[in-house]
Specification:
3-stranded antiparallel sheet, alpha/beta, 36% helix, binds S-adenosylmethionine
């Protein structure tokens, strides 16, 4: 735990701060609240009532996203085939020792998490789960080729702090594992990540903010290969990109992160991108911010 510091967030749930990445695992507004708003609500889990579901959770951390997901599907007779990618098992160890974390979930969620911590696997009649410990860029290759996911969560540290898991090259691999009608969900609304997803041929949507405020215009991004218009129109959590968001994709902020060897260091990925931005003919993001009355703080990750 020496490089992880405990944090209490405003909804009363605990989280961690990484002293290495210099970033919190969750928004200070609330770890559980963030999970529900940005990952669980947009997943529209009632679609899978009495059915089966394949899920990939990238950057599992303490496991809020999957704990919340498991908590819901336990109550609706859904069976799940689940994989997670995570480089560090200390956040899960910490979560399992923490009383306030334990109180949030159905006992079965904790039973599954204990098994993942001890054996990296869990299996029963409804749940088949495996966590692959190590760098997600390599471990993603261990997921069987025939599995296509209905939901993929990408919840890494921000692209500027951890560009390794946001490169066009890594995201292309992730998208390869996504079902045609599956949802790729991330909290990031950065132009670079949205442009990357669009370059890969996906339809992208904004996860609606909970408050109608210029300060908070997004709770993230959903990307879908092939849209089922009825389901998409009925989903209250996401919407088409606004003209302001579309315009963001025409700026230098939309230059993707690149990591063709999938083993570059963070600083090399960032440096290469800065060079590419300097050479680019795209307008600067300052022009975009001035046009739409944005400050750097309103942009998020
Ligand atoms: C923002 S936190 C994840 C929060 C998490 N979803 C939760 O509910 O606690 C980012 C996580 O990414 C992990 N991580 C960082 N680089 C990684 C990599 N290359 N491969 C896999 N996991 C990585 C960190 O160890 C950390 O647990």
């Amino acid at each position: 735990m020496s490089q992880l510091k405990e944090i209490l967030t405003k909804d009363g749930t605990i989280s961690l701060r990484s002293l290495i990445f210099q970033e919190n695992f969750h928004s200070l507004e609330g770890a559980k609240k963030e999970t529900d708003l940005k990952f669980i609500n947009p997943s529209d889990l009632k679609r899978f009532k009495n059915k089966s579901l394949n899920v990939l959770d990238i950057c599992f951390g303490l496991g809020y996203n999957s704990a919340s997901l498991f908590n819901k599907i336990i109550r609706q007779n859904t069976s799940i085939n689940w994989y997670a990618l995570e480089i560090d098992n200390k956040p899960l160890g910490y979560a399992l020792r923490n009383k306030s974390f334990q109180k949030l979930w159905h006992p079965k969620v904790l039973k599954i998490f204990k098994s993942l911590y001890q054996n990296s696997k869990y299996k029963d009649q409804f749940f088949e789960c495996e966590i692959l410990w190590g760098d997600a860029r390599r471990k993603i290759n261990n997921i069987p080729e025939n599995i296509k996911f209905d939901l993929v969560y990408l919840d890494g540290f921000s692209p500027q702090k951890c560009p390794q898991i946001w490169s066009e090259d890594f995201i292309a691999k992730v998208i390869h594992t996504l079902n045609h009608k599956g949802y790729f969900i991330t909290y990031s609304s950065s132009a670079a990540i949205r442009k990357t997803l669009r370059n890969l041929g996906l339809n992208i949507f904004n996860i609606k903010p909970n408050l109608i405020s210029k300060k908070l215009w997004s709770n993230g991004t959903i990307a879908i290969k092939s849209i089922d218009s009825i389901i998409v129109e009925n989903n209250l959590s996401f919407e088409k990109l606004s003209p302001m968001e579309e315009d963001h994709l025409l700026t230098r902020a939309s230059v993707p992160y690149r990591d063709p060897t999938l083993n570059s260091k963070a600083k090399d990925i960032i440096q290469k991108r800065v060079q590419e931005q300097l050479k680019s003919n795209l307008k600067t993001s300052k022009k975009w911010r001035d046009k739409w009355g944005m400050t750097k703080q309103t942009l998020g990750s």
